[in-house]
Automatic annotation (TrEMBL):
This is EfeO-type cupredoxin-like domain-containing protein. It comes from Candidatus Daviesbacteria bacterium RIFCSPLOWO2_02_FULL_36_8. SUPFAM superfamilies: Cupredoxins (SSF49503). Pfam families: Cupredoxin_1. It comes from the Bacteria. PANTHER family: BLL1555 PROTEIN. Gene3D superfamilies: Cupredoxins - blue copper proteins. Residues 43-136 form the EfeO-type cupredoxin-like domain. InterPro entries: Cupredoxin, EfeO_Cupredoxin, ET_Amicyanin.
Length: 137
């Protein structure tokens, strides 16, 4: 008899948990794009331009770059290892959070548009000695 009570209790518990699960409101999180890519229109190409920064085993190339506000930089990992692009200071990455584009796998590209004037330094979180800077005019 006690075996039947345990089984009945287990069944009731499962039904209660399932009932609770299916009555909870569904929370949907909008997808976050892995990278932001901007395609300039013909009329904006003269004022806005895309720059490429290669990431190699030796660091960022060019290490320091100057652009205009509204320009886009594409970080391209040409190395065989994963790298990251993160805003300084290490390890908090708080200087310019838009620059925290994270991991870039070998052969992958990620782009970011700079809409604030200033000098923004960055580093590879996986290898903090690899550093660079973007000066936005």
């Amino acid at each position: 008899m006690s075996k039947n009570v345990v089984i009945a209790g287990a069944v009731i518990l499962v039904l209660v948990v399932l009932g609770w699960y299916f009555t909870q409101p569904k929370v949907t999180v909008p997808p976050v794009p892995e990278s932001v890519t901007q395609t300039p229109t013909a009329s904006s190409e003269a004022s806005k331009s895309a720059k490429i920064v290669s990431i190699t085993a030796g660091g960022y190339d060019p290490k320091d770059i100057t652009i205009k506000m509204g320009d886009t930089i594409t970080f391209e990992n040409t190395d065989t290892a994963n790298h990251t692009v993160n805003s300084d200071p290490h390890p908090t990455h708080t200087l310019y959070p838009v620059l925290n584009i994270g991991r870039i796998a070998a052969g992958e590209k990620k782009s970011v548009m700079f809409d604030v004037v200033g000098k923004f330094t960055f580093h590879d979180h996986l290898n903090p000695s690899l550093t660079g800077s973007v000066t936005v005019q």
